[in-house]
Amino acid sequence: MDDCIRVYGFGSYFRSGETPNDVDVLILHRDCSLESCHFAILCKSLLMEKIPKLDVTMLSQDEQNDLSFITVGRALLIGIVKKSTMVCDIQKIIEKTLEFNQLR
């Protein structure tokens, strides 16, 4: 997970048969370095501008390894954002997230 983040969806928005109050996503970034955190925060800001009621959890890879958040929360990978293709990658994640609820 070099210069990229992974975005996962979890919670009622991503589960069929449940009525969502918000859209829960996990932003998983490399580590707790300033560069990694800034990139994750930038991605969070871009997603929050376009996805209504977005609730974001951010974890480093080490934190995820300790908590097993993806497994426990039954999180689904929505997409990967690379620094070199950030705008395009964010747009794909926005579209996929907004379409997900319509497919249920």
Question: Would you kindly provide a written description of the structure presented here, covering whatever features stand out?
Answer:
- This protein is α+β, with helices and mostly antiparallel strands and about 100 residues long.
- The chain has one domain: Beta Polymerase, domain 2, CATH 3.30.460.
- It is about 45% helix and about 25% strand.
- The protein contains four helices and four strands, in the order E-E-H-E-H-H-E-H.
- It has a four-stranded mixed sheet with strand order 3-2-1-4.
- The longest helix has 17 residues, at about 35-50.
- About 25% of the residues are buried.
Features:
4 helices; 104 residues; alpha+beta; four-stranded mixed β-sheet; 4 strands; Beta Polymerase, domain 2
